[in-house]
Amino acid sequence: MLMRTDPFRELDRLTQQMFGAANPGTWSKPATMPMDAYRDGDEFVVCFDLPGADPDAIELDIERNVLTVKAERRPYPGKDVQMQVSERPLGVFSRQLFLGEALDTDRIAAGYEAGVLTLRIPVAEKAKPRRIEISGSETDRKEIQA
Predict the structure, then answer these.
(1) Residue ranges of the domains in the chain?
(2) Rounded distance, CA 33 to CA 100, Å?
(3) Which residues contact 69 (CB under 8 A, 6 or more apart)?
(4) How many Cα atoms within 13 Å fall on the side-chain side of residue 133?
(5) Cβ pair 99, 18 in contact under 8 A
(6) Tens digit of pLDDT for each residue in 14-37?
(7) What is the 3-state secondary structure (H, E, C) of the chain?
(8) Quick check: 110 and 119 in contact, CB under 8 A?
(9) pTM, two decimal places
(10) For the SHSP domain, which residue ranges apply (predicted)?
């Protein structure tokens, strides 16, 4: 159901882990988010890990068959906050998926619960398996009826 994957995604993830994406001046690309994708009957389900993201800070856009998920984990509000330990990355997280023609992108449903964004994308009617009736020639039909 996914058309393509980004061949450099794993390399980007490893580079971020080694050099750190939390330092704003060292990484120009938005951080990525882990995802699972699977087919469940007549739906294609995609789950993104976005712990600590406010639902209002999540954006979903689709243009042609490219789905873009963008989320922001913001710093803690308050003037008197003094961080003691800061290991959780902050900032913008982004991910793009190239969806196949077999999916109905007009009917995507999205839900966010327990830090997981879940998208349910129905399989398009034209892509669902269907039974095709086989008919014989006119002479075969006459012989059967006789």
Answers:
(1) 9-77+88-129
(2) 21
(3) 33, 48, 58, 59, 60, 94, 95, 96, 97, 117
(4) 2
(5) no
(6) 666 566 544 444 444 456 689 999
(7) CECCCCCCHHHHHHHHHHHCCCCCCCCCCCECCCEEEEEECCEEEEEEECCCCCHHHEEEEEECCEEEEEEEECCCCCCCCCCCCCCCCCEEEEEEEEECCCECHHHCEEEEECCEEEEEEEECHHHCCCCCCCCCCHHHHHHHHC
(8) yes
(9) 0.66
(10) 26-137
Give the residue with greater pLDDT, 41 vs 143. Answer: 41
Which fold does the domain 9-77+88-129 belong to in CATH? Immunoglobulin-like (2.60.40)
Q: Percent of the chain scored above 90 by pLDDT? A: 32
Q: What are phi and psi of 14, to 5 degrees?
A: -65, -40
